[in-house]
Amino acid sequence: MLEECNEIREISSSERMEISEGLNKLQTEYLKELNIPSDVWNGMSKEAQLQQLGCIVERFNEIDSLQSINREAALSEIYSSGIIESYKQLEAPQDYIQIERISDVLSDCNELKYENWQNLELTEKVDVLNKLETIIAEIEHRPSCPIRAVDMPMYQFGGYNPNSQSIDINASYIERSGYDRNLFREVLDTLVHEGRHAYQDYNVNVCEIHPRHSEVASWSETMEGGKWGYHGDTSTLLGQRLYEQQSIEIDARNFATDVLDKFEQKQIA
Fold first, then answer.
1. Exposed (0-12), middle (13-18) or buried (19+): which is 231, by Cβ within 10 Å?
2. How far apart are the first and last CA of the chain?
């Protein structure tokens, strides 16, 4: 991918030098593992390319910071924690780290204190959700998705659209979440759940950054065009069961549940 960096005219010369010059062994290994195919790279928009390059520069800076640690004092701790291996091979943090960080973000958001959330208008709630999604996407090392309040049937909480790369949430549920704590949790659960689908989509169709390749392979089999294909018909009991048991749905459901459980624990503490 480095050979193609010169085609991105918008990137500054100093940023290009950071990417293309003076790479240490760890950075070089990381870049090889990233391995974005040329056809995928060429199919990305300029904005997406620049965002990807920005992530690479950020990771390189983190690697530099890591290597500046006193190795005599901290080497065993670094290896036992898997930090070096994660930077050599992967971009995204482990799931348990993502869950902890996202729950911290929710907990630190003043607007999510329920007495404050109740006083927000629909547009203000959507603004808060968009700000949260931007931070969550940064934690997950993927592009952020616009959050849209959309009129939907009452049984539908929301969804991730891989074509528009947006997250839609039932506008009625967002509005009513101001006086129904259960809906408040469901709105946040939908935000994290659908963001996880965006993360899965990024790993399968753009760049594999998830720590476990076997999970990405499983997601790929389920997604549209994969080995099994995505089952979306929930009009029958069997269809609902098949939908819920797909790998990407199990993963997104468990991930969002873990985040919301931790968020609620931190609110109580």
1. middle
2. 47
Measured over all CA atoms, what is the biggest interatomic distance in the chain, rounded to whole angstroms?
61
Going by their DSSP bridges, the two strands 166-170 and 158-161 should be labelled as: antiparallel
Distance of CA 268 to the CA centre of its chain: 26
Long-range contacts of 233-238 (CB under 8 A, 24+ apart): none
C-alpha separations of 131 from 105, 138, 187 in Å = 10, 11, 14
Q: Render each residue's pLDDT in the chain as its tens digit; 269 residues.
A: 333 333 333 434 444 444 445 556 556 655 555 556 666 667 777 777 666 666 666 666 655 554 444 444 443 443 444 443 443 335 789 999 999 999 999 999 999 999 999 999 999 999 999 999 999 999 999 999 999 999 998 888 999 999 999 999 999 999 999 999 999 999 999 999 999 999 999 999 988 999 889 999 999 988 876 666 666 665 667 666 766 678 899 999 999 999 999 999 998 86
Residue 196: both structure tokens together: 């996880």
Given CA atoms 146, 149, 155, 157 in this order, what sign does their dihedral have? positive
How far apart, in whole angstroms, are the C-alpha atoms of residue 159 and residue 193?
A: 9
Taking the whole predicted model, whether its pTM rises above 0.70 is answered as no
| Angstrom distances, CA of residue 115 to CA of 11, 106, 112, 118 | 44, 15, 8, 5
